[in-house]
TrEMBL record:
HAMAP family: RibP_PPkinase_B. It catalyses: D-ribose 5-phosphate + ATP = 5-phospho-alpha-D-ribose 1-diphosphate + AMP + H(+). It comes from the Eukaryota. Signal peptide: none annotated. This is ribose-phosphate diphosphokinase.
Length: 398
């Protein structure tokens, strides 16, 4: 609101008028003042500016003028000069820092500064070393072995971001632990996948970005949006470089539960034929191969699975494929858990090559000649950009 003065009057000739106005409540709120002393100080700072108003109007001065104090900018002026667009911050836990660094490199960002340490009794301490107020925060932390340690670290980091007033928090989980406990197969069993989803939600995450969940229904366990990322594009790109003839290729599912995954994989490999290994499981991490559905004789068999844990299923299936006449067997998976004795089984000569991604870091002692690691950093980085910009994620994998 402009306060008009008569043409003949000047600011100096009427100091009492402005003194009364400067102590009124509306101007107190405009200037953000709390005490009469602060009003007086701010009034003194305004004197040189008000003297320059030749027409006798009291209005908002030029905001770009370096002589204008910051407190002069009111609510209406802030609307004329909006704040910058939402900012993006990328932080890494300790589970897979190399993957986080690759993702940051693809996105052209620096990883956020964060302190994560453990006390003598094993408790985890997390502190952000930079402001995230009003930012879109993405936390890269797979819950790979040690699963409980990494999961707790993820929850505490989410809590730290929430208490630091982050605008949104997205948990980027390249490997989602406890995903196999997604249903009850026997009485009195827990469904740990749902429990972990609840923990992540209650900790303060607004969104989850997960890579190749063990089963599709796990997405329904989250009460917040979840973006499902697939590692197959980078594996398909690598297989294309092997120059395997489409006529010699057959895609194999190591169990009945992975048929949908193998069928989608085969469709993108020039619609290759599909074979299925039928197995009967007698216990956790124990399996027995029964028979093969499909023809693999004289062909290159590519087995596709979401993870390799102890490698019992996939090595038993590879032995059956060789018995059925396959001339070479490739194993492809997204998550290389590699619990003992996986390395001994995989390096035993049954596989031409074992192709995995880096969603889980591979210890140096677990490398063997047939192992090939491809990176999903570009896929994760592109997905993060699209989530931040409200773009389509599914179009990446079409």
């Amino acid at each position: 609101m402009a306060l008009m003065a008569s043409p003949s009057s000047t600011f100096e000739s009427r100091p009492s008028f402005f003194s009364r106005r400067i102590e009124s409540r509306p101007l107190f709120q405009t200037l953000g003042c709390r005490t009469s002393r602060s009003v007086e100080m701010k009034y003194d700072a305004l004197k040189p500016i008000l003297k320059e108003l030749s027409d006798g109007r009291l209005c908002s001065p030029n905001l770009k003028d370096p002589k204008v104090p910051d407190f002069v900018v009111g609510q209406r002026d802030q609307e004329l000069f909006p704040k910058p667009n939402r900012r993006l911050r990328l932080f890494s836990g300790t589970a897979n820092p190399s993957l986080s660094q690759e993702v940051a490199g693809y996105m052209g960002l620096d990883l956020g500064k964060i302190t994560i340490k453990r006390f003598a009794d094993g408790e985890i301490y997390v502190q952000l070393q930079e402001s995230v107020r009003g930012c879109d925060v993405f936390l890269v932390q797979p819950t790979c072995p040690p699963a409980n340690e990494n999961l707790m670290e993820l929850l505490i980091t989410i809590d730290a971001c929430r208490r630091a007033s982050a605008r949104t928090i997205t948990a980027v989980i390249p490997y989602f632990g406890y995903a196999r406990a997604d249903r009850k197969t026997e009485g009195r069993e827990s469904i740990a996948a749902k429990l972990v989803a609840n923990l992540i939600t209650k900790a303060g995450a607004d969104r989850v970005l997960a890579c190749d969940l063990h089963s599709g229904q796990s997405m329904g366990y989250f009460d917040i949006p979840i973006d499902h990322v697939h590692g197959e594009p980078v594996i398909l790109d690598y297989l294309a470089s092997k120059m395997i003839s489409a006529n010699d290729l057959v895609v194999v599912s190591p169990d009945v539960g992975g048929v949908a995954r193998a069928r989608a994989f085969a469709k993108k490999l020039s619609d290759a034929p599909l074979a299925i290994v039928d197995k009967r499981r007698h216990g956790h991490n124990v399996s027995e191969v029964m028979n093969l559905i499909g023809d693999v004789k004289g062909k290159v068999a590519v087995m596709v699975d979401d993870m390799i844990d102890t490698a019992g299923t996939i090595t038993s299936a590879a032995a059956l494929l060789h018995q059925e006449g396959a001339k070479a067997v490739y194993a492809c998976c997204t998550h290389a858990v590699f619990s003992p004795p996986a390395i001994e089984r995989l390096s035993g000569g049954l596989f031409q090559e074992v192709i995995i991604t880096n969603t889980i870091p591979v210890a140096e002692k677990n490398y063997f000649p047939q192992l090939t690691v491809v990176s999903v950093a570009n896929v994760l980085g592109e997905t993060i950009w699209r989530v931040h910009d409200d773009g389509s994620v599914s179009s990446i994998f079409q």
